[in-house]
Specification:
The chain has 23 helices and 27 strands. It is an alpha/beta fold. Helix 3 runs parallel beside helix 4, helix 10 packs antiparallel against helix 11 and helix 14 runs parallel beside helix 18.
Length: 704
């Protein structure tokens, strides 16, 4: 079997990013810019991330976007929104620590600004991969070879490069080659004044004109650099059409190149705070190219992809039928070799293969999950297989959601609880976060605007928590007749009020770009539906828009489930480990409510009927997963599938969070047994459940 690494993600043959410096951008203009560039209603759908300053004059008054006002050194009133934008990939570049140009600031840069910036970013877990220098010679913070640039000179008062690395910076703009549009690679080593190398990258913003052309460019408002004044600088948004010409875009595509285009979108202030018709036309043209020819992504994603594609190391493991592409490392000659890779780092990596359906990815010794593997028809050269997590795409409508999420977070600030905690504080907030993530993922997987197929049967695994829902999700998502949700836990019915439910909204959470005629059911696994108080309302909501839904309820030994949940909350900082020392965990009703299986399932029986509910125990799934999956297939009326990957533990808490195991002593186990006994006995009888594998629970039955 022939295996070959493709240069760009399928189906693209080039990659482009717009890198806009934040100069002159106000909060209002920022949102206008991103809405116009991203939102489909403008007939423009482009991935674009902005840059940001940490300090700027007039930041407090909103005349310039930055985290801190330079005059007062206090946080700008909108700083939380900037943080939200960074987390949502709307901002990915640090345009230095601030605007210290002679014309803008009376302050001179020193290391203290970098320290304060890092302290803030580190506190809020914010990082930047990309650094872009700014301004005139007063910006001594700049990194590079020019004499005034002292950011990497260890003995200088402006030295900060050690801090810059802690922020995560891997790429620095190199102003050379600014008149070249396309490059076979964007990366070239840049030696700094401390002797260290980092990756430098060029950006396109200049065009050297002849005498005849100069008149036209002057009439369009271009400024000119150089001794001969023949270098037209095109980084004003009104000149975007002169940058993104059809000739340049076609050449980029034909020659299979990368490009990063410099802009200053904040300068729409010169055109009544709007893009000109010419600029909008250029963006629409680029949007058309982005559909199948040029992969338009953010600056950081382009550079990270370029680095991965150029230095990826892998081996091909031949099988009797097919092969495994085992990705082993990124052997970066500048930043060093990386072996502990995560799947999101490899987004877009594509290999040509003769047989994509018998070609698999392996990472860190494990086969990559099916939902992260995309198999492609031939692009004219060969078929291919792609690692696809959806993370290259940037969602378009986060501004409106920010207000809702921020309001909710402000109402539910206490996250860590030392004593008894309400069920609401440990469920509702998490549900909002999961639903928001589902919306984002779904948008990334629905670029082709396919209409949802409402004839597909909804299959909902409602939990319970710590009962193996992730394992079942991993297994059942492999079935060719199952279309899994864009995320495992959309938590839709734990968030939306009954009067706001929409069948179209619910079905839109699925990745309809991946829909095939084989699909018979849609599948999600939101454990919040079996939590209290959500279980009291979720069943009613499900019936309202999906009355034919099939419910799978996973349970396990109630005592072991409670131990696992308590360890989970302690690991995440949601509950204090002090609860164990003085037995105050017994005051936490949330822990017990989730093990009251009969109470939790009762609303579903009432609303959807017992015949539409299948109860499976985790112990049963582990002991005989083949027959258990066959039982599920029969319940869902889908065909038998015999190519599930071997059963493995999903989402292991101690591996992910470094959590200690919680094990109750006999006295505590007896306490739990007495509280739950009546409910569990009713549940076992109601569903004729075989609980012979509940070892801990059964020990207490025998001791009665």
């Amino acid at each position: 079997m022939n295996i070959k690494l493709r240069k760009f993600p399928y189906p693209y043959k080039a990659m482009l990013a717009i890198s806009s410096d934040i100069d002159s951008t106000t909060p209002e203009n920022f949102e206008y810019i991103h809405d116009l560039i991203k939102h489909p209603r403008h007939q423009i759908e482009l991935n674009f991330s902005d840059s940001i300053w940490m300090f700027a004059s007039n930041a407090k008054s909103g005349k310039q976007l930055a985290f801190f006002d330079m005059g007062t050194e206090k946080l700008a009133p909108y700083w939380r929104k900037l943080k939200y934008y960074i987390n949502k990939d709307w901002i990915d570049t640090l345009h230095t620590y601030g605007n210290f140009s002679q014309t803008e600031a009376s302050n001179n840069f020193n290391r203290d600004y970098a320290l304060k910036s890092f302290e803030f970013l580190d506190k809020h877990k914010l990082t930047f991969d990309v650094w872009v220098n700014h301004g005139d010679e007063n910006n001594t913070q700049n990194l590079g070879a020019y004499s005034y640039m002292q950011g990497a000179t260890p003995d200088d008062a402006s030295y900060h490069y050690d801090i810059c690395k802690k922020i995560g910076v891997k790429y620095i703009w190199n102003p050379k080659q600014r008149d070249i549009f396309g490059h076979s690679s964007m990366l070239s080593p840049l030696k700094l004044k401390n002797g260290e190398n980092i990756w430098g990258f060029p950006r396109f913003h200049s065009y050297f004109v002849n005498a005849d052309e100069k008149k036209y460019y002057e009439a369009r408002g271009a400024i000119f650099w150089g001794k001969d004044k023949n270098e037209a600088v095109l980084w004003h948004p009104s000149l975007l059409d002169l940058q993104l010409t059809t000739e340049r875009l076609e050449s980029l595509f034909v020659n299979q190149q990368y490009a990063i285009v410099t802009q200053h979108f904040g300068n729409i202030k010169d055109t009544n705070n709007k893009f000109t018709p010419e600029a909008i036309a250029a963006l629409k043209k680029l949007s058309d190219y982005s559909k199948s020819k040029i992969n338009v992504v953010s600056t950081s994603k382009l550079l990270n992809y370029n680095r991965v594609n150029e230095f990826l190391e892998y081996e091909v493991i031949r099988l009797e039928k097919g092969c495994i592409i085992n990705i082993t490392s990124i052997n970066d000659p500048v930043l060093g070799k990386s072996v502990d890779l995560i799947i999101k780092e490899l987004e877009g990596v594509t290999f040509y293969t003769d047989d994509p359906f018998n070609t698999f990815f392996m990472l860190n010794g494990k086969i990559v999950r099916p939902e992260y593997t995309k198999r492609n028809v031939s692009d004219g050269i060969a078929q291919s297989i792609t690692i696809s997590t959806g993370t290259m795409n940037i969602e378009s409508d986060i501004s409106a959601r920010y207000e809702v999420v921020n309001e909710f977070n402000n109402q539910n600030k206490p996250a860590k609880v030392t004593g008894a905690s309400s069920d609401e504080s440990l469920t509702k907030k998490a549900s909002v976060s999961l639903w928001e993530r589902a919306i984002a993922k779904a948008m990334n997987f629905n670029k082709n605007k396919k209409k949802p197929d409402f004839s597909l049967l909804p299959v909902i695994c409602i939990g319970g928590m710590k009962c193996g829902t992730s394992t079942l999700w991993d297994m059942l998502s492999q079935h060719p007749e199952v279309l899994p949700c864009s995320v495992k836990e959309p938590s839709y019915f734990a968030v939306r009020d009954l009067n706001l439910l929409s069948k179209n909204e619910y079905y839109s959470l699925w990745p309809w770009d991946k829909f095939t005629k084989k699909n018979k059911v849609i599948f999600e696994a939101s454990t919040h539906y079996s939590k209290f108080p959500a279980s009291n309302t979720a069943a009613t909501q499900i019936k309202a828009i999906a009355p034919n839904a099939k419910i799978i309820y996973l349970v396990r030994d109630p005592i072991k489930r409670l131990e696992s949940q308590l360890a989970h909350h302690i690991s995440r900082g949601e509950l204090s480990s002090d609860l164990l020392a003085d037995n105050r965990w017994k005051e936490n009703t949330h822990l017990f409510n989730l093990s009251l299986y009969n109470q939790r399932i009762d609303p579903y029986v009432e609303q959807l009927g017992k015949n539409n509910i299948l109860v499976i125990s985790l112990e049963e799934l582990i002991a005989d997963h083949k027959n258990t999956l066959q039982k599920i297939e029969d319940f869902l009326c889908i065909s038998t599938f015999d190519r599930y990957t071997p059963l493995k533990k999903s989402n292991p808490r101690r591996m992910v969070l470094g959590a200690d195991k919680v094990t109750f002593n006999k006295s505590d186990q007896s306490y739990i047994f007495r509280l739950l006994e009546s409910d569990i006995n009713q549940f076992i009888k109601r569903f004729s459940l075989d609980n012979n594998l509940w070892k801990t629970w059964n020990e207490h039955i025998q001791n009665m």
